[in-house]
What does this fold into?
Amino acid sequence: MILYVLLKPVSRNLALPAASFRVTFVGVYAVAKLFLVAVAILLVIGGVGYLINSFAQIVASALAATLFPLSLLPGFVAELGLVLWLIVKGVDAPKWEARAQG
It folds into this structure.
């Protein structure tokens, strides 16, 4: 239990850059495939915001506290928008497969 308490802040600082690269990659891929371009651009901005926040946590914690809402808001909005889009509209599988092959 003590080890968990000691390593929790460190693990968050290591996991957030990985999540930022994932979000950025999904956004770049969606822009390249012209799939939900507005949400994809927000995903790229959000991924960069996650990366800025994680490096600010490592370098300057006081700066990260002030940047926290501004750097994470675009990613939150983009990921929520993507999830809601997939829940409400879904993916047209035949159209998606035809587009992938042609």
